[in-house]
């Protein structure tokens, strides 16, 4: 049974209805470097679309983000992989890059790369896709035995999402940390 709500004179489905529909429409899976390399043209254009109107932190630029992600892909870190979110049409709608595949040494902290969701999605869809990918990454890294994640947050929107919804905290340098315990 669908439940609809009037918000700002716009009729919208309630959260649970949206969540159920989104669960059927989006998936998030782990992929290797070969997958990213094979789909790089589309992923690169999705990254550009996602960040072209962003307000950046710490002197980041769109070109710096594209260069950093492509450098990681070209270097093919063997101990890292990525999460890709797709819609029902099998189109890539988001990704998280450079997630450790195995626990390195006895370290309790790991570093992850950039993430995005495409701006063509409706706001609730973007949040769902982000949740899907981020929760999958957090659960996987927690299961590997990591107790904390560090990352750089390059945009104001990313900072808002990751600090408010997921509890990332600013460290003394330009990194952010999320405790998984």
Task: Give the gist of this structure.
The chain has helices at residues 15-25, 33-38, 40-51, 62-75, 123-144, 156-164; strands at residues 4-7, 10-13, 26-31, 80-87, 92-100, 109-111, 115-117, 148-151, 169-170, 176-179.
Describe the protein in words.
It contains six helices and ten strands, in the order ββαβαααββββαβαββ. It is α+β, with helices and mostly antiparallel strands and 181 residues long. It has a single domain, classed as Gcn5-related N-acetyltransferase (GNAT) (Aminopeptidase, 3-Layer(aba) Sandwich), CATH 3.40.630. The strands form three sheets. It has a four-stranded antiparallel β-sheet, with helices on both faces. A four-stranded mixed β-sheet has the order 6-8-10-9, with helices on one face. β4 and β5 form a beta hairpin.
């Amino acid at each position: 049974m669908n439940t609809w709500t009037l918000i700002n004179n716009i009729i919208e489905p309630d959260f649970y209805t949206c969540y159920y529909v989104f669960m059927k429409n989006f998936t998030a899976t782990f992929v290797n470097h070969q997958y990213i390399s094979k789909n790089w043209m589309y992923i690169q254009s999705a990254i550009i679309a996602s960040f072209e109107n962003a307000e950046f932190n710490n002197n980041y630029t769109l070109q710096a983000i594209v260069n950093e992600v492509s450098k990681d892909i070209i270097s093919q870190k063997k101990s890292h992989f990525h999460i890709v979110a797709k819609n029902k049409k099998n189109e890539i709608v988001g990704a998280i890059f450079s997630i450790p595949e195995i626990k390195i040494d006895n370290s309790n902290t790991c570093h992850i790369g950039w993430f995005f969701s495409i701006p063509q999605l409706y706001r609730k869809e973007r949040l769902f896709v982000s949740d899907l990918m981020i929760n999958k990454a957090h659960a996987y890294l927690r299961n590997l035995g990591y107790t904390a994640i560090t990352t750089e947050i390059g945009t104001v929107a990313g900072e808002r999402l990751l600090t408010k919804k997921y509890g990332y905290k600013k460290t003394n340098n330009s990194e952010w940390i999320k405790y998984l315990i």
